[in-house]
Amino acid sequence: SAALIIILGFSIYANSMKGKFIRDDESLIRDNIYIKSWSKVLNCFKNDIAAGGRQRWNSYRPFQMLTYMIDYSLWKLDVRGYHLINIILHILTALAIYWFINLIYGDSLLALFTSALFVINPLHVEAVSYISGRADSLSALFLLLCLIFYIKLVGRKNVMLYILGVSP
Questions:
Q1: Which position among 27, 61, 69, 121 has the lowest Cβ density within 10 Å, counted as fewest Cβ atoms?
Q2: Alpha helices in 14-78 (DSSP H)
Q3: Is the pTM of this model over 0.70?
Q4: Per-residue pLDDT tens over the stretch 68-127
């Protein structure tokens, strides 16, 4: 079932890897001096997400900025790598949906159907194809993981599950 979700995700969104930096990507990534050096990593936690670029936003998203730093370390300004990471995040979110639905209902077929519907749903095109839309995938992924670990924690005395359930 995981293989099906992965195949669906890549087959639907692989075309987005041909895209370019557009709109907010330019300020958040291409022109952002803070993501281009790990010596500036603390700026992720001090400033708004676009502070190192040409714009200023009133939007504090340190984890998203950290993902751009990782991307820049791996790909520099090769936009295909950024798109690849967005596709992977979308697929991971779909797999987390599978895990969550299976945990709640104990029905792997329902979980597969739900996660497949999520991964192919055209409503997610902007979150996946638009690099700056990464915030949506990150939010959904971490919300689902928190819910999963919280559900697994209930009735157990496992400190690590508790930490994972409340961490993001």
A1: 121
A2: 24-25, 43-46, 62-75
A3: yes
A4: 999 999 999 999 999 999 999 999 999 999 999 999 999 999 999 999 999 999 999 999
> Of 150, 100, 142, 95, which Cα lies nearest the Cα of 161?
150
Q: Considering its fold, how many domains does the chain have in total?
A: 1
By the 10 Å C-beta count (0-12 exposed, 13-18 middle, 19+ buried), 142 is classed as middle
> If you ran DSSP here, which 8-state letter would residue 26 be given?
I
Task: Specify the amino acid at residue 25.
Answer: D
On whether residue 66 sits in a domain, the answer given is: yes
Instruction: Give the residue numbers spanning the domain of 59.
Output: 7-166
In a domain, 117, yes or no: yes
Angstrom distances, CA of residue 163 to CA of 52, 150, 154, 158, 167: 32, 9, 13, 9, 6
Residue 2 lies in a domain: no
